[in-house]
Amino acid sequence: MCRFMRTGGPGSLTHRRCNTASFKKGLELYQYMATSTGGALLVIRKSDIFSATQVIDRTVRQGIVDIAIKTVTSGSHTFRVNIDASVKTVFFQNTGDCQRFTVSYEGRVLPLTDPVTIDNLFEGKINVTETHGEWMINVTANSKCSIKVIGRSTFGFVQTLAKQESGELARF
What is the pTM for the complete model shown? Predict the structure, then answer.
């Protein structure tokens, strides 16, 4: 998975030097590489670089696994995820137009801690104590909203997923 950061923030793309054809092609290439590998391109302000680096660092560490990835469109949506005893921390990331986002367990809303918002990416986490089992995620969106649920295991496993293309084995 590729994740790229570009500093400057959304307004910086209007600067004259950022309107060249080669800059736009480069930006399109980064966007293509990121999305085709399940990653993201974040355009951030320089003041957000440390927060953004922490978010990206969490997704590439050992013991991290994607539990669920969902994309919803406008309206209210609910989906379930199962959290077992091997998970000690659950991170929730959403991008797009996610207006309301809550996580509940046995009818009680679980508070998200350490919330970070960068560009259109939001991340919060829940430390898992005795709340193992089925969690409900409720999302209200005005348009497209992508949700990623990431678990950090108490075990030091590494999960690597490779996509097989054209009948050939993936090589690393």
Answer: 0.62
User: In angstroms, what is the C-alpha Rg of the chain?
Assistant: 18
170 inside domain? no
Answer yes or no: is 132 within a domain: yes
| Environment class of 13 (CB within 10 Å of its CB; exposed 0-12, middle 13-18, buried 19+) | middle
Residue of 7, 147, 135 whose CA lies nearest to 71: 147
Average pLDDT, the chain: 76
114: containing domain: 63-153
Per-residue pLDDT tens digits for 15-39: 445 667 777 777 778 777 777 666 6
Instruction: List the beta strands (DSSP E) in the chain.
Output: 3-7, 40-44, 64-72, 75-83, 87-105, 108-110, 113-118, 121-127, 133-153
Taken in order 37, 112, 72, 131, is the CA torsion positive or negative? positive
**Spatial CB neighbours of 7, under 8 Å, sequence gap ≥ 6:** 44, 45, 46, 49
Q: Domain tally for the chain?
A: 2
Give the C-alpha separation, 77 to 73, whole Å: 9
153 has pLDDT over 80:
no
